Amino acid sequence: MNTILISIIAVPIIEILLFIKIGENIGAINTILLIIFTAVVGLYFARIQGIKTIKSGFINIYQNKLPIYEILSGASIAVAAVFLIIPGFFTDAIGFLLLIPITRKIILSPIMKKSKNQTKNEEVIEAEIIEDKKDEL
Asked: How far apart are CA 105 and CA 3, in angstroms?
């Protein structure tokens, strides 16, 4: 809970600082145009990555495999799109990192390992039930 509160406070502060620094170097109008440009380009790439993830998921379904990575990848692409819509350079950087397949795989690999370990730890004990029929009349 504390990390969420800290991020709610820290992210806007970082964004404002980046707006000021970049605005000093390239100007206010160019900063605004750059924010709009990164949002448009980012959403375009999010759409392309989303379509590729859906295709990969359908391929896994046709092969009778669970598309776990594709589900997590699609969720991270949706989060990346939200980060790209939010105006700011810090959130755009996080959004673009989530859109790149290599960095997305690095970010999602601990979650994938954790889910694989949980499924392997389930032990199945096979047994047979024998009913004794005593006292039959």
From this structure: 23
